[in-house]
Amino acid sequence: MTLAEQKAAARQAAFVRREAAFAAAGPGAGGGLSSVLAGYRGVPLAGYLPIRTEISPLAAMAEAAAHGPVAVPVIVAKGAALEFSRWEPDAALRAGPFGTRVPEVDDFITPEVVIVPLVAWTRSGERLGYGGGFYDRTLEGLRARGPVLAIGFAFGAQEAESLPMEPTDQPLDMIVTEREIVTF
Fold it and tell me: What transmembrane ranges does the database entry give (predicted)?
């Protein structure tokens, strides 16, 4: 089995676990994300607007927006790193690629803390995304410029014992679930 096939199989299994966790959790399953972000008040932060069955960081992002800049990812081109446009609760949004929503007006910032959506994660800080490499390219570029804290946000059920990884896959610094906070 090739690495691509291994990743596809791991994604498929993780999507099933995430869907079940999402159905069981109900709204507001944010876990300790707000408490983690409270330690970074005023630091430029990037979150995300959840799609499909992703756990929602919106409540924690709204709290953080009262203290400093919060942005969400914007896909500017295939194969490119993400850009992050300033977001505020109830901001006007427009359609983005892959079913995403992005701020109506682009106002890009460089985050120092990035909340990373994911499909699966491990206790050693590995993450499996959707396969486009957007967050891997983005984290690599941000880390080349200076310190950045990459916080994976997911349901505990998305944990995997191991994941197929390649050298370009960027590790997480922390994972926050609805039940726990794990630092690496």
Answer: none
For residue 75, the enclosing domain spans: 3-183
Q: What is the pLDDT of residues 35-77, one digit of tens each?
A: 999 999 999 999 999 998 999 999 999 999 999 999 999 999 9
What is the C-alpha separation between 136 and 131, in angstroms, rounded? 10
Q: How far apart are CA 115 and CA 54, in angstroms?
A: 12
Which is nearest to 33 in space by CA: 138, 155, 127?
155
**Tally of domains in the chain:** 1
CA distance 42 to 155: 26
Q: Cα–Cα distance between 167 and 132 in angstroms, integer?
A: 15
Verdict on whether the full-model pTM lies above 0.85 = yes
Look up tokens 């999507």; give the residue. 15
